[in-house]
Design a protein that fits this description.
This protein is mainly α and about 280 residues long. It is built from 9 helices and no strands. The chain is rod-shaped.
Length: about 280
């Protein structure tokens, strides 16, 4: 099961507390407010449906909460999958890089006069995946030249190794790395898309929570339930949360599956960087 990020977990705690208050104390609050208003109704005037309004607000808030939580879980899952793809890509890049390095050593060791620059084997083996991929493709192309013998020069040993015969073995990992790189890029695009959806869902939830909590707080105060009003009062500095953090025993049905603090901080920082359009940190 996917885990909730720390920020969303805090919002969920407050929301579940508010939803419980709407469900359990809502009828009492609605009755008390109606009791104050009843004597002041005009003859034949229907009393306002306070309880129905409270129940409707609860359904609206619950729907917004569910959407936000679903997208938060979906985004976390996508980022876990992307991390797995990065590991796989880097593993393949390590194998391919090792082959390119070995190939360079074979050429230099057996052909002391080889023009390695014309084969793309000069310098060092690149480590960054897309750069390594391009380097390897270039080397494979160069090693299939018709004038390869002229470029290699005279060998130190007889018979000399057939350098071109190694190309198919390198191309296998070139293809694997190319596929892994494309899979990672597709994953990045999915993460970016879901991140935008999540950001919008959080915005909608925060706005809905604020309006619902304020309306219920006002009704509680009108009913004389000031202690309950203080508990459901929304925080202005922490959108989507109550001013007073609910205690564990006051939040029923909350799954304790949030990520640890360090992981949560890294996760949120990466999301902020991506939403701001900053380039990814690696590879």
């Amino acid at each position: 099961m996917a885990t909730l990020t720390a920020m969303i977990s805090r919002k969920v705690r407050s929301c579940l507390f508010l939803l419980a208050a709407l469900t359990e104390q809502g009828p009492l609050v609605a009755g008390l407010v109606l009791g104050k208003l009843q004597p002041r109704l005009e003859e034949g005037e229907e009393p306002p449906p306070f309880l129905a309004q409270i129940q409707a607000l609860g359904r609206l808030l619950k729907a917004s909460l569910d959407e936000m939580v679903e997208l938060d879980r979906k985004l976390y899952d996508e980022k876990v999958r992307r991390a797995t793809l990065i590991e796989e890509r880097d593993e393949i890049a390590g194998v391919l890089g090792g082959k390119i390095t070995s190939l360079r050593r074979i050429v230099v060791g057996h052909y002391p006069d080889a023009k390695v620059g014309r084969l793309g084997l000069e310098g060092r083996t690149l480590r960054e995946s897309i750069a390594l991929l391009r380097q390897s493709e270039l080397i494979c192309e160069k090693l299939e030249r018709d004038d390869l013998e002229d470029i290699l020069g005279d060998p130190s040993f007889d018979p000399p190794p057939d350098i071109a015969s190694y190309v198919p073995q390198v191309e296998v990992d070139v293809s694997r790395l190319s596929d892994a790189y494309e899979a990672h890029q597709r994953s990045r695009r999915r993460v970016a898309a879901v991140s935008l959806e999540r950001k919008e869902a959080i915005r909608i939830y925060d706005a809905t929570f604020l309006r619902v909590a304020r309306q219920f707080e006002d009704l509680c105060r009108l009913a004389g339930e000031n202690e309950l009003a203080d508990r459901v009062r929304p925080s202005l500095s922490r959108p989507g949360e109550t001013l007073v953090e609910p205690e564990d025993g006051e939040v029923a049905g909350l799954e304790e599956d949030g990520v640890d603090a360090a992981e949560a901080a890294a996760f949120e920082a990466e999301l902020e960087a991506e939403s701001a359009g900053e380039p990814p940190s690696v590879n």
